[in-house]
Known about the structure:
By secondary structure, this protein is an alpha+beta fold. Helix content is 24%, strand content 32%. The chain has five helices and eight strands; from the N terminus they run H-H-E-H-E-E-E-H-E-E-E-E-H. A hairpin with a 4-residue loop joins strand 5 and strand 6. 30% of the residues are buried. It comes from Streptomyces lichenis. This is Secreted protein.
Amino acid sequence: MPLQVCPAPVPALRSVLTALGSPVVRSAHTPALRSVQGPLSPELPLPVHVLDVRDAPTAAGSARSARAGAPHARLAGWRFHIRGGDRVVAAVDALPSADGWSVSRFFEGPYLASTERALRQAETMAGRYQPRLLSVPELYMLTLWLHGNAEADPAEGTPAPTDLLVPLAPAPPGIASHLPYRVAELLPVMTLRLAPPPLLESTA
């Protein structure tokens, strides 16, 4: 089932196109960008949401804590893959600012290929999803978030229990990359990883 990829806000796309048209991009600290001789073009815009899991309920949490600790996600920006020739060579984030939108930085790394792989994987799944990126900074973790409401506003919403999360490689130890998890399955695992270790009782 094809994914419902949403268009990025026009001012965000405009900021990326302006950056790509600047001579500064060719001197960026991104070797792949400097090596491209032809034109560069942005593609595959994905909204990047940041997830706060510290207050989310664990598997053994009470009903009260579950109500109080529902996962909270906020839009951080939009990520564009940058194509040069026949391949993706870098990515860039467009971030909301006081003056509209601004480009943060161009970068490369394993998440580029991992994102493309996860999207190809999602295209073979049953159902219709809206693809997003979901970052968990406390775990140094990035996932492809397949939102079950394909018509939703891509800037709004929080992960539903039945939404799918596909951890991108490299994933944290103990969490398999490129294995789709339901939010209800993966969220308690992430929450437990962030929980402080239990205090040892003194025998004195």
